[in-house]
Amino acid sequence: MKRTLSLPGLAYGGDYNPEQWPEEVWAEDVRLMAEAGVNMVSVNIFSWALLEPAEGAYDFSRLDRILDMLYTHGIAADLATPTAAPPAWFFRAHPEALPVDRDGRRLSYGSRQTFCPSSPAYRAAALRIAGELGRRYADHPAVVMWHVHNEYGCHNAECHCDTSAEAFRRWLRTRYADDLAALNDAWGTTFWSQWYYDWDEIIPPRATGAVPNPTHQLDWRRFCSDELLSLCTAERDVLREAAPSTPATTNFMVMYNFDALDYWRWAPELDVVSNDHYLRSTDPESEIDIALSGDLVRSLAGGPWLLMEHSTGAVNWQHVNRAKGPGELRRNALAHVARGADGIAFFQWRAAKAGAEQWHSAMLPHAGTDSVIWRDVVQLGADLRALAEVRGSRGVAEVAVVWDWNAKWALELPSQPSEEVRQLDLVRSWYEPLWRAGIAVDFVRPGADLSAYRLVLAPSLYLVDDAGAENLTGFTERGGTLVVGFHSGAVDENCHVRLGGYPGAFREALGVRTDELFPLLPGETVGLEGGGTGSLWSERVRPTGAQVVSSYTDGPLTGVPALTRHGYGTGTAWYVATLPDPDTLTALLDRIRTEAGVTPVRVTPEGVEAALRRGRDADYLFLIDHRGKGAEVPVAADAVELLTGRPLTDGSVTVPPGGVAVVREPRSVLP
User: Fold this and answer.
1) Does the domain at residues 399-596 carry the CATH identifier 3.40.50.880?
2) What confidence tens digit (pLDDT) does each residue in 97-153 have?
3) Total Cβ atoms within 10 A of residue 195
């Protein structure tokens, strides 16, 4: 049973760390929170050392005062278990709980998440303090949600110690039904004399002299994700025992190439799916990253979700940490709401004056209230109050993009045909033209129910099991349109190459067969018939029923098909055997989606993002100008712009330069 967050309107706030400040500052904090419209804060995330100064000795007096203060001032608490940062005394008592890297070095404490996920001592200590918190605050009126841990796997996704090795072997014995022969077959251990005769011979994929076994590495990644998930669910269960009706969350990190966890497995275990998202200074169009991330998290959640962390300005962990430009804070936050977020939170409330994140921006910056950031924070609070009715509405999409963490892990193992091929890069290259065209997108795992979609894209699906492949090709047989990118379907769930020619699992549906791969060097391109170029990849494709749409015009594969189209069942399957340049890829995807009957959320001028959330009684159209030119966009004649409250009787809305408009329209506007 999923528990819901009982909070009126959209949540607004951030990480609140009052323990870092004298108590006389707290009164100013809650006064300013009221001014900004803050209605929920996350507390206690890194307070373990203060709550438990010695093993089994607890001091909750400070946290009592904090929660009482928040409740008195009408601010809800997302109460965290502080288990991401065990105290120094714990590691002095249990040095074996410190993590070991793949080179065999045991790391030291002195930062955060410096524990072995398989450590029995850590698990016992974490569950003990989670239980104390749960029992003490189960009925506290300020507590509306449990925040389990913080950013699982951010710094300790893997530990290669002997304890982890034992846990890995237990996991493998379960996965392979205690059948060592089945493991040897799955891992292909006849290669390089890696055959195992005893479970105790198996170790984590530690540093070794040559390339490790790919299936060994893949199962290790699966184990590491599951091991952290077991910690999360154990803490969650302790909290549920104390407070059965209080929802629980933990913050995901689905972007930045963070791929330690299989979030498809994690999301069903949480009442509320939350995510952290930070911009990269090197990304000139980070608004696309925000949209992609938001669509992926919304898809994981199956509906609304919470943005647990993002930044008001600069972060502190990049080579150069840039501040946000005028209006960017507001655009970023409302873009997340457009993609399904029912709450917006920042790290953190008050900028720290000491510690590792002292140069990370905050809602209340070092400069105080006489600052652009503070004025933007207050404005955003007013915006979110004006959008309260959006809460609970959902995204609507006719296009699905296949995303799978197992496929990502497998693709990015060593000794691939090209180390330049990366799943996130390929997915973004295909997602970007859809975003520019205002096409709504969901993300799906290979075995998902696809009945709601007209078009399914698989830009990068190197690994797929038989069931996933049959699900995707069955979608095509039943009348859907499937588009598959190169090097997809190549291996099964054990990383074994699918024999008989590429693209493996999808050959029949695509009506093509490839006998040899010709990946391209960095900077190398090949010409494409009809204009344009391809980069990153090429391959010797032979049609076995498919229609050739475009061929290579130069290089060793001159005249060989690069883009094909195949009728399969009552549907259509396309194969893209290179990475077309952006204009060519845009034209191709425009053609495909038009043929599939997919239409934009709304046609807008270049640089104006359009996204839709559908409520019970109305649709909510979000329009965000990222180019600073403003726009006039047609809307229903009886629509209302929610941020201003202005009726739109003339059938259009003005999006201010660099600004945002959110329009409530009748449900009848779209099917």
Assistant:
1) yes
2) 999 999 999 999 999 999 999 999 999 999 999 999 999 999 999 999 999 999 999
3) 14
User: CA-CA-CA-CA torsion for 591, 597, 601, 605, nearest 10 degrees?
Assistant: 30
In this structure, the strands spanning 525-527 and 455-458 are unpaired
3-state secondary structure at position 19: helix
Pick the catalytic residue from 287, 309, 493, 609: 309
Spatial CA neighbour of 417 closest among 486, 517, 513 = 517
CATH topology identical between 399-596 and 608-669: no
Contacts of 467 (CB under 8 A, 6+ apart): 446, 447
274 forms beta bridges with: 251, 306
* One-letter amino acid of 14: G
Tell me the fold of 11-91+119-156+231-389: TIM Barrel (3.20.20)
Parallel, antiparallel, or unpaired for β 76-80 and 143-147?
A: parallel
- With b for 16 or more beta-carbon neighbours within 10 A and e for fewer, the 554-583 pattern comes to eeebeebbbbbbbebeebbbbbbbbbbbee
**Extents of the domains making up the chain:** 11-91+119-156+231-389, 399-596, 608-669
Q: What is the spatial distance between Cα 51 and Cα 506, in angstroms, rounded to a whole number?
A: 55
Instruction: Give which of 252, 258, 255 is closest to 273, Cα–Cα.
Output: 252
- C-alpha of 92 from chain center: 35
- Active site (annotated) includes residue 539: no
pTM of the predicted structure, to 2 decimals: 0.97
> In terms of DSSP H, where are the helices of 327-371?
328-338
- Is the domain defined by 608-669 classed in CATH 1.20.140.10? no
Q: Is 609 a known active-site residue?
A: no
Instruction: Choose, from 52, 132, 151, 235, the residue flagged as catalytic.
Output: 151
Give the HSE-up count for residue 499: Cα atoms under 13 Å, Cβ half-sphere: 0
Mean pLDDT of 477-493: 98
